[in-house]
Amino acid sequence: MADSRKLSHYTPRGEVRMVDVSAKPVTSRSAFAYGFVRMTPAVVRQLRRLKNPKGDPLEIARIAGIAAAKRTSEWIPLCHPLPLTHIDVTPRLCQNGVEIRSHVTAAAQTGVEMEALVAVAAAALTVYDMCKALDKGIEIADIFLLEKTGGKSDDYRRKPAARGMRGTRK
Fold first, then answer.
1. Which CATH number fits domain 27-152: 3.40.47.10, 3.30.70.20, 3.30.70.640, 1.10.10.10?
2. Considering only CA atoms, which of 88, 73, 96, 110 is closest in space to residue 34?
3. Any idea what the Cα angle at residue 97 is, between residues 66 and 62, rounded to 5°?
4. Where do the structural domains in the chain lie, given as residue ranges?
5. CA dist., res. 110 & res. 95, Å (int)
6. Which residues are catalytic?
7. Which of 9, 18, 66, 139 is most deeply packed, by most CB within 10 A?
8. What's the distance, CA 128 to chain centroid?
9. pLDDT tens by residue, 131-161
């Protein structure tokens, strides 16, 4: 059986375009994303003590993620600007780094997956920026969509068996 899916940002002639969503109904959209910032135990200990000369990296990362989600269409050229109704970015310190989760909602004609992913990416980059003076070897890893609901396409939920989330290991 042939795969009927296609890349929506291309015309049949292969030209790049922004998808026309004007005929689509406004529906409730939601997306959850995940990312992980891997760091040494020494950096984790420093974060636990909240002794960073630039301020609390996790709170600044939260704000950066929220701000970035609101500006996703400026980061990703073919994304539509969306009227987001909720953005939650939750960075959590773990034994081997920082787990970052985002949840974004909107009543819109297109999904909010990119907004959720951009929120996580910006928060992760901010953690790196805030902590790079302690260790340049910090790694940003495993940014992915956990779940999306709403719209014409089927809802999506990442299977737990698909590559475990790093921060959940002890």
1. 3.30.70.640
2. 88
3. 10
4. 27-152
5. 37
6. 129
7. 66
8. 15
9. 999 999 999 999 999 999 998 878 999 987 5
In the chain, DSSP assigns E strands to 27-38, 84-94, 97-108, 139-149, 156-157
pTM above 0.85, yes or no: yes
Q: Please say whether the beta carbons of 144 and 158 come within 8 A.
A: yes
Q: Which of 166, 67, 83 is nearest to 125 (CA)?
A: 67
SS3 per-residue string spanning 126-168: HHHHHHCCCCCCCEEEEEEEEEEECCCCCCEECCCCCCCCHHH
**DSSP 8-state code for residue 82:** -
Q: Say if CB 31 and CB 104 are below 8 A apart.
A: yes
Opening angle at CA 105, ends 60 and 37, nearest 5: 35
What one-letter code names the amino acid at 55? Answer: G
Binned at pLDDT 50, 70 and 90, residue 169 comes out as: very low
